[in-house]
TrEMBL record:
GO terms for molecular function: 6-phospho-beta-glucosidase activity. PANTHER family: 6-PHOSPHO-BETA-GLUCOSIDASE ASCB-RELATED, GLYCOSYL HYDROLASE. InterPro entries: GH (IPR017853), GH_1_N_CS (IPR033132), Glyco_hydro_1 (IPR001360), Glyco_hydro_1_AS (IPR018120). This is 6-phospho-beta-glucosidase. PROSITE patterns: GLYCOSYL_HYDROL_F1_1 (PS00572), GLYCOSYL_HYDROL_F1_2 (PS00653). Belongs to the glycosyl hydrolase 1 family. Keywords: Glycosidase, Hydrolase. The active site is at residue 367. It comes from the Bacteria. Its EC number is 3.2.1.86.
């Protein structure tokens, strides 16, 4: 049956999401400096090279830097209300520690945002999306170093001032909690993971949290009309059994993620983290104004959602699920994608309700999607396309659960599917792991025309937006 009740608010922000480093390409054009992404040719969890190498697919991406106008026109054809992208920090400050910005980089994003606004598409901009300037990683060890707060402050003041009036919605750090699992990709930390102490790791977390709060404070001062949110990687966790020890294991696993949103929303460190620091002999260095800065809390909570996991206290059963960035144990009741990500639409309703019950802050789903090895075909009309019914089913089922959460009383601002146009995978640097409504003719061996083709899901999502979700099918 189709949804007959107008569940989605009339001002619901439908759209899609990308990251600069995964689609822009032009890695050294117009004065851009290198970022951490330019030296990870096998993805964020792979080896780090001394300098960019030709086998890094992100150096070209899908050439969005030169083709953004044709891509935005396609987004407008689908009816996007918003488009989430990021600013490549090293386009604005090539090394990250300069005093003056790179004008060519600033102009590119001026032009990009103007193009979006031409079609009445609201930009939703991530300030730091796994794109720490490489110089800051090599010279300062990334966010382990407190100097990063000042470099970030200079960057955000620059872009807030430049794009005031053009960008209303901002996110401070992408999936900020992922720094615990991918310290180089997420935090620009050059120290090898096996040598990185817990003290240094959580000191880096503290610096990011302070910087995020400072950005929120500055943003509200420069752009009183703007809304600034945090962004976390959400993955609901279920106990493997009803054993109370498994339930405690779930509580402890979820607190590692709630910690980040708790600080962003409540403006202080929660008691359970203070206990964790005591029991692990971690003494964080606080600056004299840090506690006060942390009270600059966010306007909304945004998050990515791809999968759920299970937890247990039984070490003999702790086999991490394939592809699960945050670890966890595969759920025997769920199917998985080609990349081992377990598919759990109802988990999205659970996440939305859990966040709402905990915070009563507006929520924004800014990443959700299915990575698959799409096959380009020629249809009966002679057009190249992809029959991606599996993606339509995935997105439909997740959006139905968003509708359920709205009926539960959860306030949801919008939904942006991840990789609305095919791009390079963050975790594996593959192009064959495709998410988009638009197929890009580029392949992992570097071949392809870069031509764009509409997939079957393109017209499906267009109808979802046109009907404000009433075309979704409950199964």
């Amino acid at each position: 049956m189709t949804l007959t009740v107008e569940q989605f608010p009339k001002d619901f922000l439908w759209g899609g999401a990308v990251a600069a480093n995964q689609l822009e390409g032009a890695y050294n054009a117009d004065g851009k400096g290198w970022s951490v992404q330019d030296v990870t040719p096998q993805g964020g969890f792979g080896p780090i090279t001394d300098e960019p190498t030709e086998d890094n697919m992100k150096l070209v991406g899908i050439d969005f830097y030169n083709r953004y106008k044709e891509d935005i026109k396609l987004f407008a054809e689908m009816g996007f209300k918003t488009f989430r992208t990021s600013i490549a920090w090293s386009r604005i400050f090539p090394n990250g520690d300069e005093v003056e910005p790179n004008e060519a980089g600033l102009k590119f994003y001026d032009d990009l945002f103007d193009e979006l606004l031409k079609y009445n598409i609201e930009p939703l901009v991530t300030l730091s999306h796994y794109e720490t300037p490489l110089h800051l990683a090599k010279e300062y060890d990334g966010w382990v170093n407190r100097k990063m707060i000042g470099f970030y402050e200079n960057y955000v003041r620059t872009v807030f001032t430049r794009y005031k009036g053009k960008v209303k919605y901002w996110l401070t750090f992408n999936e900020i909690n992922s720094i615990l699992h991918a310290p180089f990709m997420s935090g620009g930390i050059a120290t090898a993971p096996e040598k990185l102490t817990q003290k240094d790791l959580y000191q880096a977390v503290h610096h990011e949290l302070v910087a995020s709060a400072l950005a929120t404070k500055i943003g509200h001062e420069i752009m009183p009309e703007a809304q600034i949110g945090c962004m976390v990687l959400a993955m609901p966790t279920y106990p493997l059994t009803p054993n109370p020890d498994d339930v405690i294991a779930v509580m402890e696993a979820e607190r590692k993620n709630y910690f980040f949103s708790d600080v962003h929303v409540r403006g202080t460190y929660p008691g359970y983290m203070k206990r964790f620091f005591r029991e692990n002999a971690i003494e964080l260095d606080f600056g004299p104004e840090d506690e006060e800065l942390l009270t600059n809390t966010v306007d909304f909570i945004s998050f990515s959602y791809y999968m759920s996991s299970t937890e247990t206290a039984d070490e003999s059963k702790r086999e991490a699920g394939k592809g699960n960035i945050l670890g966890g144990i595969p759920n025997p009741y769920l199917e998985a994608s080609e990349w081992g990500w377990q598919i759990d639409p109802k988990g999205l309703r659970i996440v939305l309700n859990d966040f709402w019950d905990r915070y009563q802050k507006p929520l924004f789903i800014v990443e959700n999607g299915l990575g698959a090895n799409d096959e380009l075909i020629i249809d009966e009309n002679g057009n190249k396309t992809v029959n991606d019914d599996y993606r339509i089913d995935y997105l439909n089922d997740h959006l139905v659960q968003v509708g359920e959460a709205l009926k539960d009383g959860v306030e949801v601002m919008g939904y942006t599917t991840w990789g609305c146009i095919d791009l390079v995978s963050a975790s594996t640097a593959e192009l064959k792991k495709r998410y988009g409504f638009i197929y890009v003719d580029r392949h992992d061996d570097g071949t392809g025309t870069l031509e764009r083709y509409k997939k079957k899901s393109f017209s499906w999502y267009k109808e979802v937006i046109e009907t404000n979700g009433t075309s979704l099918v409950e199964k």
